[in-house]
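Researcher: Good morning. I'm working through a list of sequences from a screen, and I'd like to move beyond sequence-only analysis. For each chain I'm collecting a predicted structure so we can compare shapes side by side. This is the next one on the list. No need for commentary yet; just the structure.
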Amino acid sequence: MGQPISEAMTRPGPEGRHRAAAYPTGSNWSKVPQVTALFWIVKVLTTGMGETASDYLGRTLGPIPAGGLGLTGLVVALVLQFRSDRYRPWTYWSAIVMVSVFGTMAADVVHVVAGIPYTVSAVAFTVALAAILIVWYVSEGTLSIHSIRTRRRETFYWATVLATFALGTAVGDLTAGTLKLGYVASGFLFAAFIAVPALSGRFLGLNAVAAFWWAYILTRPLGASFADWMGVPTARSGLGWGTGPVTLALIVPIVALVAYLAASHKDTPAEQPVRQ
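Model: Good morning. Structure tokens for this chain:
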């Protein structure tokens, strides 16, 4: 309580009331990284890249083929993540990237193909996210990411992550388009909102787990708003750089940072031995 998010989140949380089947390597092997400043930087970069990559693929291939490609990539990435016996930077962040791409596609298909307004889809995704979190907590007694050491908890974790990406996409498009704030104003709005859990944790004693998920949800519309601003045409109040070039430009720092994390083990969980 009272620490910045990047510090408070690195402390082990309660293990909860129930236990599911442990991984073959035992319950001390975490499947998610330590939450550091680099975690948030890479997370925001992946949200922006997922937004522009989804838009580029949708316009190039069409929404249905692009969605099929995104779903295939997501399934492959998650299979590799679930089969991994511990947190591995390349495997984990590849899964996050694919969740970002497909989560954007899911939210866009609901709006573009099904014609459902962002106001409705944002509410629907909020309800879905709340339902996942409630079932997770009732089942496991904790929502702490430090407890992701069983198959069931990892399933809840990735279901939550996917829901946060879809919700964040819908909310970002809602503020930028439906509410006509534009991409830049939306980006700064979410940047202000994301500071709230950090300040609340420091000064108001907000629970660290609640602060984490609050900030995690907001990284999606934050990164996507600025990525859209860079990629969309000037006629839509963007810089007009193109979604393809922006996607490639964001991939470079993502790859560089994940390579650094893999080599330095800076985000390897404390209880997980480093394998040289």
